[in-house]
Specification:
mainly alpha; 69% helix; globular
């Protein structure tokens, strides 16, 4: 996959809630965790995390969790900037982005 394809898939530069939602879902799928497991790790209810994900509006706590536990930083989550991510994380994220979300 070349850089242009990656930028399209990650919607680099797209800060719309829809794009952020897709990146959050891909991040969660990359971890192999369910929403309730992410919520538990954050210390919030599943409903609260589901709302953040579905609205494309992650909390600072959620972004910190993805960075500290899974090496996915806010530049990717909020802007689709992936160049700073470790290559193994990029590969797993692009695999997740290539699949239908849900």
């Amino acid at each position: 996959m070349d850089i242009e394809q990656k930028e399209l898939l990650a919607k680099t530069g797209d800060i719309s809630p829809e794009a952020i939602r897709e990146r959050l879902i891909a991040a969660r799928h990359m971890t192999g965790l369910q929403q309730n497991e992410i919520a538990r790790a954050l210390g919030v209810s599943k409903t609260t995390y589901h709302s953040q994900e579905s609205r494309g509006a992650p909390s600072i706590k959620a972004m910190r969790y993805y960075y500290r536990q899974h090496r996915i930083d806010f530049n990717y989550l909020l802007h689709g900037d992936f160049a700073q991510l470790p290559l193994d994380v990029q590969e797993r994220l692009f695999d997740a982005l290539s699949k239908p979300s849900g």
